[in-house]
Design goal:
Elements lengths: L2 H42 L11 H7 L4 H13 L3 E4 L3 E4 L4 E4 L6 H4 L6 E12 L2 H7 L6 E11 L2 E11 H4 L12 H9 L3 E12 L2 H7 L6 E11 L4 E10 L3 E4 L7
Parallel strand pairs: 3-10
Antiparallel strand pairs: 1-2, 4-5, 5-6, 6-9, 7-8, 8-9
Helix pairs in contact: 1-3, 2-3
């Protein structure tokens, strides 16, 4: 057989093998992601109360997965900072995410009251001309002053969110002497106006942390954070609070109860 034919024949035999190997690797990666999602839910909902995950062989049996798939799934969770491998102990839970509901209009301290103390570090506070998009959202004249507040919010001492808040100045002026370090803005707004808050429009997306946000949140620069944009209205419909909240994604999980209507 000529050399060129032998090379061509060898390549023809090897190609299916290489393709099959790639397919197996892809399928294992798919299964590992699926298993990581299931284990992540267990981690975040207290499914491992002792703080230690079952042995890899037990997980493989319980989830009908191979040992390699289990190891790959645990590697994914380790990369997220949720678990770690301790010699002589096994895989342990090393991080906790706190639940933040999206189906009720509540301040952060109200939302997380069962999980510890929320303290606010007021970094910036004072009147400032409203940028055009802010003025439009708050239904105030272009260039009118608003109260601008920047707060670092900590849960049990750990940085959790960086909040940028815009409030119409006729309401915001009364906040200048308020206890913003220990009180949610929502409670203060209701006390100042004598009216209940009604509803809020929210948008949630993942963004890369800029240098300033990363430094304040003590997170790696460029890490993904959860950005919650929220425009809150009084019960009569007046918009009174526009917020841009950057949450550390490794410390918070968003949840809600949705009802289908057609």
């Amino acid at each position: 057989m000529p050399p060129t034919d032998r090379i061509r024949d060898h390549a023809g035999q090897g190609a299916p093998t290489v393709a099959a190997q790639r397919t197996r690797r892809r399928l294992r990666a798919d299964r590992a992601r699926q298993l990581a999602d299931l284990l992540r839910h267990q981690l975040l909902t207290g499914g491992f109360p002792a703080g230690t995950l079952p042995h890899e062989s037990t997980l493989a049996t319980d989830y009908r997965a191979s040992r390699n798939t289990v190891r790959q799934a645990l590697d994914l969770l380790r990369a997220e900072g949720l678990v770690d491998r301790l010699p002589g102990v096994g895989t342990v839970v090393v991080a906790q995410k706190y639940p933040h509901g999206l189906d009720r209009l509540m301040g952060l301290a109200e939302t997380l009251r069962e999980h510890g103390h929320v303290a606010n570090e007021v970094r910036t506070m004072g009147p400032a001309p409203a940028p055009a998009p802010v003025a439009e959202r708050l239904h105030i004249p272009p260039g009118a002053d608003v109260l601008y507040i920047e707060r670092l919010r900590r849960l049990n001492g750990l940085p959790l969110s960086l909040d940028l808040t815009y409030i119409p100045l006729d309401i915001g002026t009364a906040l200048l002497g308020a206890d913003l370090e220990n009180t949610d803005v929502f409670r203060l707004l209701e006390a100042i106006t004598g009216r209940r808050l009604g509803h809020a429009e929210i948008t949630l997306e993942a963004v890369n942390a800029d240098a300033h946000s990363a430094t304040v949140l003590e997170a790696p620069r460029g890490t993904a954070v959860l950005m919650l944009e929220r425009l809150t209205h009084l019960a009569d419909g007046r918009p009174v609070d526009l917020e841009f909240i950057r949450f550390r994604g490794d410390r918070i999980t968003m949840s809600g109860l949705l009802h289908r209507s057609l």
